[in-house]
Design brief:
About 35% of the residues lie in helices and about 20% in strands. It is an alpha/beta fold. It folds into 3 domains: about 35-120 and about 245-420, 3-Layer(aba) Sandwich (Rossmann fold), CATH 3.40.50.300; about 125-240, Domain 2, N(10)-formyltetrahydrofolate synthetase, CATH 3.30.1510.10; about 435-520, Formyltetrahydrofolate synthetase, domain 3. The strands form 7 sheets. Strands 1, 2, 3, 4, 5, 6, 14, 15, 16, 17, 18 and 19 form a 12-stranded mixed β-sheet that branches. The radius of gyration is 23 Å and the shape is globular. It catalyses: (6S)-5,6,7,8-tetrahydrofolate + formate + ATP = (6R)-10-formyltetrahydrofolate + ADP + phosphate. Keywords: ATP-binding, Ligase, Nucleotide-binding, One-carbon metabolism. InterPro entries: Formate_THF_ligase, Formate_THF_ligase_CS, P-loop_NTPase.
Length: about 550
């Protein structure tokens, strides 16, 4: 069987200007990066917006679910049945690419191309975001070095340097050789506030405004200090000016794809940029986008954070699942997932069932389930799963777009078109005027089925500190927790009930406009695994990349 890379390398790509014509963009609307990648410089101001389709998933497992592959396959299938579609995706981070998760361009015959360039440096957006973030921290240290006019408390600096790489040695650093010393750390770029701002800003003015609002520190008198006070936001915007334009590429099926931004969903809000989604809404009739991890994290944040800024709710939602992943949640070990096990499938279904019920009842979404088929899924397992899903009042589609491309998901595409014709009753989970604790409790009880929340002494102290700041009480909350469980304990699989959501810390992303609620041990700088993917990646004597998935 060919690898994703081998499949991608057999496809002769169309010139990106030809792809742009499919969505009525001229060559003058683009800045090209070679023949197959472009930045979109200008977007027509069409009154009518495209139908918005959100792809989410059950709680992720080591077996993998194929959410990005489904996003690409569905967009291709919509075009195959005659609809003008665009996929909007997040950019891959080098951390997971060289670590253990892999890239973010789909797989099989539902891929975004050129996958090598996209998964590696692409158009340099992450470099620009990293540079803007690190400029800000350098200017903070410089301000302190040259007299500290704002009286910054070095123990209460709120921002950290970042790097788009998994490197556990940077989780703790000691800065020396200055006129002062301080302990700090690095975050991975996709966990930085600059990344979140980049993906939530509506235009260039909004980008600069949000950068200026970043809470950089507290003074020794307890007063908040913002990036605009050290005049960092203008130069940061200059670094991001070109990166802020969405990137245009193509699928194997030659469907246009906009890839832009990429915050993690367990730490940040986990969605591609508002700029990219808005571009898609103006350039196509159907926009297929995704939210990171399961519906409890990515979809909730899409609804409660991104949709508020975007000004649009999903017209239809696809929940991606696999029989393998359901059996894993039913207690089967990874090495036995290929064997038929109806009891484990039945037990593991409670996880998917919870996500279906949350999307239907808590968010009012129009829902369909896409089950990515594997050759070892038995007829009995497929029949049982269809019965279980349809008993929840939603349809199930067995999808084969990984193997067959667009043809493997046309039935799903036709159902999505019908769903998008229904009245859109999608809603957010809570109101912004509600108290911060009420917002957290609403998510914990409604989505995670917790019996309550428990704040550490540090979290309570931070809550009081942040509530006293202007505008913070009206911000949405962004839960940072393990993606593998509805609880804050990754070992509790399935659909755990009546647990207590443990909140150990809070982090204010004032520029991004949300409060991060940290539940359990969340790592903002990952490490590489025992056998990182980087060990398998190489370039042969002909200059051809090898081993990239």
């Amino acid at each position: 069987m060919k690898s994703d890379l081998q499949i991608s390398q057999t496809k002769k790509l169309r010139d990106i200007t030809s792809i742009a014509k499919k969505i009525n963009l001229k060559s003058t609307d683009l800045t090209t990066f070679g023949k197959h990648i472009a930045k979109i410089n200008s977007i027509p101001n069409r009154k009518k917006n495209a139908k918005l389709i959100l792809v989410t998933a059950m709680s992720p497992t080591p077996a993998g679910e194929g959410k990005t592959t489904t996003t690409v396959g569905l967009s291709d299938a919509l075009r195959k049945i005659g609809k003008k579609s665009i996929a909007c995706l997040r950019e891959p981070s080098l951390g997971p690419v060289f670590g253990m998760k892999g890239g973010a361009t789909g797989g099989g015959y539902s891929q975004v191309l050129p996958m090598e360039e996209i998964n590696l440096h692409f158009t340099g957006d992450f470099h620009a975001i990293t540079s803007a973030n690190n400029l800000l921290v350098a200017m903070i240290d410089n301000h302190i070095y040259h007299g500290n006019k704002l009286n910054i408390d070095i123990k209460k600096i709120q921002v950290r340097r970042c790097l788009d790489m998994n490197d556990r040695s940077l989780r703790r650093i000691h800065q020396d050789g200055l006129r002062y010393e301080r302990d700090s750390k690095f975050d991975i770029t996709v966990a930085s506030e600059v990344m979140a701002i980049f993906c939530l800003a509506k235009d260039m003015d909004d980008l600069k405004l949000r950068l200026g609002k970043i809470l950089i520190a507290f003074s020794k008198n307890g007063k908040p200090i913002y990036a605009r006070q050290i005049k960092a936001h203008g130069a940061m915007t200059a670094l991001l000016k070109d990166a802020f334009k969405p990137n245009l590429v193509q699928t194997i099926f030659e469907t246009p794809v906009i890839i832009h931004g990429g915050p993690f969903a367990n730490i940040a809000h986990g969605c591609n940029s508002v700029m990219a989604t808005r571009a898609g809404q103006k350039l196509a009739d159907y926009v297929v986008t995704e939210a990171g991890f399961g519906a409890d994290l990515g979809a909730e944040k899409f609804m409660d954070i991104k949709s508020r800024t975007l000004g649009a709710m999903p017209d239809a939602v696809v929940i991606v699942a696999t029989i393998r992943a359901l059996k894993y949640h039913g207690g089967v070990t990874k090495d036995k997932l290929n064997k038929e096990n109806l009891d484990a499938l039945n037990k593991g279904f409670e996880n998917l069932q919870r996500h279906i019920q949350n999307c239907l009842n808590q968010f009012g979404m129009n829902v369909v389930v896409a089950v990515n088929r594997f050759k070892f899924d038995s007829v009995k397992e497929i029949s049982l799963l269809r019965q279980l899903i349809e008993s929840e009042g939603v349809s199930m589609h067995l999808c084969e777009h990984w193997e067959r491309g667009a043809a493997g998901a046309t039935h799903l595409a036709k159902d999505i078109v019908k769903l998008c014709q229904k009245k859109n009753k999608a809603r957010t989970l809570y109101g912004l005027n509600q108290p911060i604790l009420t917002k957290i409790e609403t998510i914990a009880k409604s989505i995670y089925r917790a019996k309550g929340i428990k704040l550490s002494a540090l979290a309570r102290k931070k809550l009081k500190e942040f509530e006293d700041l202007s505008g913070v009480k009206r911000m949405p909350v962004c839960i940072a927790k393990t993606p593998y469980s509805f609880s804050s304990d990754p070992a509790q699989l399935g659909a755990t009930l009546n647990h207590t959501l443990e909140i150990k810390d809070l982090d204010l992303k004032n520029g991004a406009g949300f409060i991060v609620i940290i539940c359990g041990p969340i790592m903002t700088m990952p490490g590489l695994p025992l056998k990182p993917a980087a060990e398998s990646i190489d370039v042969n004597s002909k200059g051809v990349l090898e081993g990239l998935f």
